[in-house]
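Retro notes (design track)

What went well: tokenization of the new backbones is finally stable.
What didn't: we kept losing track of which sequence belonged to which structure.
Fix going forward: every design gets posted as structure first, then sequence, in one message. First example under the new rule, 417 residues:
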């Protein structure tokens, strides 16, 4: 039985995280009517209204790679990533391309890029992008953004590197619209009398902090100050062996390299090697928090609890592990009805005697196996229940609906008219 459970978890993890999408791109000038200034991208799609310009590069899962291509079928959560001091968004193309290909809508603000950045404004820019990207679900104007209607999953994460990491704490402070927080080598942000360390005390969402053992720009004492102040019940800090401040990103920032060299430390491993190390933790964390993937939470905890030379240190409070499943009370199969079939607008799935299932994974794929929608349920109320799926935005054709629990897997074919 343990072997079967392990195989099941591996299968669900693969379904949740292995899907690779082409990457679409749009430059969008968002607006904040309560502030002035900012940075507008020349030739970008212009949001309506007046106030501060928050020019952002947006990368997303698409039907084909390129600029202004159609978003892929499905719903995708939002990730906002803030750049480091005197760094540019494209210093992180390895990160945003990877996340977009895995089914995240990633936005990178281009504001506060000069030598005198305002940390409060940058933190607010990061927070506002996470909120305004959610509005794309129902936006009608500008027309170019209506392609996102129904495509944005109502979950958001904010994060960043160095200055952007510090400002992510400011953006997360008392932010009720946020699902989770992450950052890389977070620097202390304290312009305008605003402290990222003080802001951490007002952050209560699950948080992942990633830093380097050889960081001499924002060293372990800086990271520990942020971590200690976090009000989150679930918070994790991983210190990577031999990793420096500038190893987070693609290594193309000359200003970052010069800055850390002047501080007395340099690279000992490649940026590409560091990338694989920290993404092995960031991806399952985001999959768990933003896509409700129970197996990815287990994967994250297995990795952080393991003894590994990759980690020079770690701090752990709370867990992402799902509740234990009582195998004795599980049914050997899943009882469910699905209708109407063929379907035009709304598909309804009825679970019968739902409390007997334990954890259930539910997903829809197209004819060639591309994941369109995935959900997971770790606990249920007693009795029958139903799930309604809006199919209006699905292309006509054949799809497969699959349910899995530790005792079984069943699949039904449906036709979208």
């Amino acid at each position: 039985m343990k072997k079967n459970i392990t195989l099941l978890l591996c299968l669900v993890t693969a379904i949740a995280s292995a899907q690779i999408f082409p990457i679409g791109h749009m430059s969008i000038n968002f607006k904040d009517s309560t502030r002035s200034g900012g940075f507008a991208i020349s030739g970008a799609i212009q949001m309506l209204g007046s106030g501060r310009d928050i020019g952002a590069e947006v990368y997303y899962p698409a039907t084909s790679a390129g600029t202004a291509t159609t978003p892929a079928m499905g719903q995708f959560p939002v990730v906002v990533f803030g750049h480091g001091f005197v760094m540019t968004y494209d210093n992180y193309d390895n990160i945003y391309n990877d996340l977009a290909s895995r089914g995240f809508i990633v936005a990178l603000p281009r504001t506060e890029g000069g030598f005198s950045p305002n940390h409060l404004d940058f933190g607010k820019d990061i927070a506002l992008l996470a909120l305004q990207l959610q509005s794309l679900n129902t936006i009608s104007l500008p027309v170019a953004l209506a392609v996102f209607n129904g495509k944005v999953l109502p979950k958001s994460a904010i994060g960043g590197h160095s200055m952007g990491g510090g400002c992510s704490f400011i953006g997360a402070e008392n932010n009720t619209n946020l699902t989770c927080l992450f950052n890389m080598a977070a620097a202390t942000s304290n312009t305008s009398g605003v402290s990222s360390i003080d802001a951490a005390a007002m952050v209560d969402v699950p948080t992942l902090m990633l830093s380097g053992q050889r960081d001499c720009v924002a060293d372990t004492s800086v990271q520990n100050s942020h971590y200690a102040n976090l009000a989150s019940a679930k918070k994790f800090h991983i210190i990577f062996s031999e990793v420096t401040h500038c190893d987070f990103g693609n290594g193309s920032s000359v200003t970052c390299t010069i800055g850390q060299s002047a501080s007395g430390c340099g690279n000992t491993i490649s940026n590409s090697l560091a990338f694989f190390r920290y993404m092995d933790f960031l991806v399952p964390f985001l999959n768990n928090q933003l896509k409700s993937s129970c197996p990815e939470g287990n994967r994250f905890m297995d990795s952080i609890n393991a003894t590994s030379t990759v980690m020079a240190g770690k701090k752990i409070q709370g867990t992402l592990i799902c509740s234990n499943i009582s195998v004795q009370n599980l049914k050997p199969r899943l009882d469910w009805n699905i209708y109407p079939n063929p379907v035009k607008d709304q598909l309804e799935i009825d679970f019968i005697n739902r409390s007997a299932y334990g954890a259930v994974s539910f997903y829809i794929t197209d004819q060639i196996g591309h994941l369109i929608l995935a959900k997971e349920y770790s606990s249920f109320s007693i009795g029958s229940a139903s799930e309604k799926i809006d199919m209006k935005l699905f292309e006509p054709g054949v799809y497969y609906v699959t349910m899995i629990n530790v005792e079984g897997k069943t699949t039904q074919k449906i036709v979208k008219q």
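Added context from the reviewer: DSSP finds nine helices and 19 strands in the chain.
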